[in-house]
Structure formats: C-alpha cells, structure tokens
Amino acid sequence: MTDSSFPQRLIDKLGLDGVITAPDEIAPWLSDWRGMYTGHAQAVVRPSSTDDVAAALALCSEARVPVVPRGGNTGLCGGATPDASPMNVILSLDRMHAIRSIDTIGNTLVAEAGCILGNLRRAAADEHRLLPLSLAAEDSCQLGGNLSTNAGGVNVVRYGMTRELVLGLEAVLPNGEIFHGLRTLRKDNTGYDLKQLLIGAEGTLGVITAAALRLYPRNDVRVVVLTAVNSSQQALDLFELLFERGGPRMQAFEFFTAECLDMVLEQVEGMRAPFAERHPAYVLIELADTVDEPALRELVETVIGEALERELCVDAAVSESIAQVNSMWRLREEISEAQRADGPHVKHDVSLPIASIPAFLASAGERIDKHHAGVRLIVFGHFGDGNLHYNLSRPAGAPRDFFKLHAEGLTAEVLDEVARYGGSISAEHGIGQLKREYFSRYKDPLEIRLMREIRKVFDPDGIMNPGKIF
User: Fold this and answer.
1) What is the pLDDT of residues 140-155, one digit of tens each?
2) Name one GO biological process term (predicted).
C-alpha cells in the first residue's frame, strides 16, 4: 500500500519542479535502457542541491520509503531500475551538474554527481588537464553512476578504475545526514577510508552527491597500433613487451577476436577490414604522452618492429593521423552495437589474472561447445587489465528465442570456469539485479556476511536501492 500523502510531503519540501508524480511522466524512469527490467515508483525526485537530497532522504527514512538512486541509466545490470514495489521513490541527480572547481596546481576537479562524464573530460581538457576515465557511454553516463559502480573503461591499464581517481566524496546517508568527505588531499592517513565503501556500492549505502577527482597532464600526442595475432598467448606476450618498453605511456591494450571483427564488418556501415588477410585475433594498443609526436612514434615503431621480429604479432598498422586513430578505435568500439544488431545475446563481464587469460579462453570455449555446439563466442575486452567481455551469440540459424532456453546453463558454464581460475564474475559492470544469484553463489560467504553487516550500519531500515547486490 502506498501513502497517497507522501508525494505531497516531498513536494512541500522540495517544490513542484523537484518532484514528478504524474504516472505518464514517471513511466520513462521505470526501465533500464536495454529493456530488461521494469519496476514501479510513486514519484521521481530531482533535487537541485545536496541539502535537497538530505531533505528527501530524511523524509523517506522516516516513512520507510525505498529509494532508488539513478544516474544516466547506462548500466547493464539493472542497478538503477526500481523493483515491483509501488512505494519506490526514484532519486535522480540530473539537476546537480555543477563543476565546483578545477585546480591546475593541485590537479583536482570537484564536480557534482549529475555531471555527464564527457562534459567533465572536456572541461579538464580546456584547462590542459586529463580526466582519464573514458567509457563508450561517456556522453550520457553521469559521474554518480560511474562512482557507484566503480566504472572501468579503456584506460584502466594506465590510470586504474574509478576508485583510484577519487580523492574525496560528499554523500548523503539514508537518514539524511551529510557525509562531508569532499577533500582534495593526496595524503590523509586518519583512520578508515570511508569513501571507498560508497564507491562501488551501487547506491545501497547512500547517495553520492559530489566528488573530488584526480587530474593528469593532457596527453595530446597519441599513437594507436592495430596488430594481428595468432592467439591470445601471443597477445599476452605482446603485452609483456609493450608494458616493459612503453612503460606508463601505454594507456590501452584492447583484445578482440576475428569473430568480433567479422560481426562489425557485417553489421556496421562504412567499416573496412584493417588487413588484407583475416587473422584469429587483434590487439589495439594506444600510447600517449606529452612529448613531441616524432619521439613517441619512434618508440612505437621500434617496439612493434621488435614484436614482429620476435613473432609476437603477425602484422601491424600504426596510425598516421587522428582520423586513423579514430577509425582504428571504431573497430573495437562498434563491437557491442554490432552484436546488438545481430540479435539476442548473453553478456558476461568477467576479470581474470592476466596470465590465465589464454588458458581460460581455451577451456571455457571447450565447455561452451560441449554444452551446446555452435554457440558463437564474441570475446573482446580490456586485455591489459584482465577484463574480458565474454559474450555469446546464438548459433547460426537458431531462433531468436534461443537464449530463453539456454542462457542459464551457458552462463553457469562460463562463470564456473571464471571461478576456477580465481576470477571475478563482474569486472566493471557491478551486480545490480542481473548478477545477484551469481554473486551469492561465487562470493566468499565471509565477504558477503561482512558486506551485509556494513550495509546494516549505513542503512538499518534497508531503504536504499532494494533488491540490488543482495
């Protein structure tokens, strides 16, 4: 049963422009962008300040009303979609999109959680600095969602995950108290690092309202190399060489199989094969620096020449212009869209010890083939940090509802193999609703118990983002 007076209490506190109550206006907020999950809500709250967030959460806490924080709705696990309860209140920070400061001495950026990531990256670039968090959805995802899911992206091999870019946080706890942790200090060794509990918590411990982020020198000089390899082991050997020779200049090392490229060439207009011959797999490498371009290009050409001599790759193309940089990246970035155009598929966002990737690919492929021959493996990802998007497409000629019957069994085969190698069932997408069952199955029971106890400390009444993670 909903309390019909509660939306009015929200309006009285936040104003008409901060609360949506009409069912037809709430409807667009109830589903994830993939259309996998749809829930219910009695209101959408759009605060314009941290104090407004605190007021809204205090009201919800008092009335035991569940709160579902929502960012740009680009997540893949249903983490920002409400469940079936009609009592839910969706809380969006899209009106809190101010950049509070950019400091080019301390090299920090302080921004509110509703900021679009791409806008933050451009604002940093305008000050000759780099915010290295870079995702395919960066022009629609919001900072709060990036923080709440500990987003990854293509530059993790050099700069780390989102949590490694955060110096401080401001957040509102479920009871309406404001956590004033928005510090820009590089060193603060005073007890528990509480902000790290909120990062990656998927909105289950509170609502992040602002963050202080690290900035880096802007790397205007970029060179991209697309290499062809005969195997994932060859790619691993190539990574070892590039890491040794390229050092901190290597900021992306992306792997994708021939099946991925075939699908891109078939499904995406205007794409061309990068080499005259088809090869088993490909590696896209980006190096960037602040030095002059000839010096970086000389380094790249020397290392790639050594790789070819040592048979660590079978062919290579080095970018000669920004246009070529972008076209090479498109071959990697269009894989997800190509797979969506191809039809229904099952996604697995997993991570493994980097040295185990070749063995995992071999044994997991055998398991999938034994379980159901003909399932197409669309494998790509951030090889340099151990993150694979191990996706499955239905066999050629199979009906579009193939995965209604087979998804669960195939997923078990994949994740059992991930666990066997000491990997993780979620590298960068989080748990949300999609992976709750697998989280409880594969996570150590002690870790789960401690997480539940931490959640009770922050949210004893369980109002924050119910049905997510646990």
Assistant:
1) 999 999 999 999 989 9
2) respiratory electron transport chain
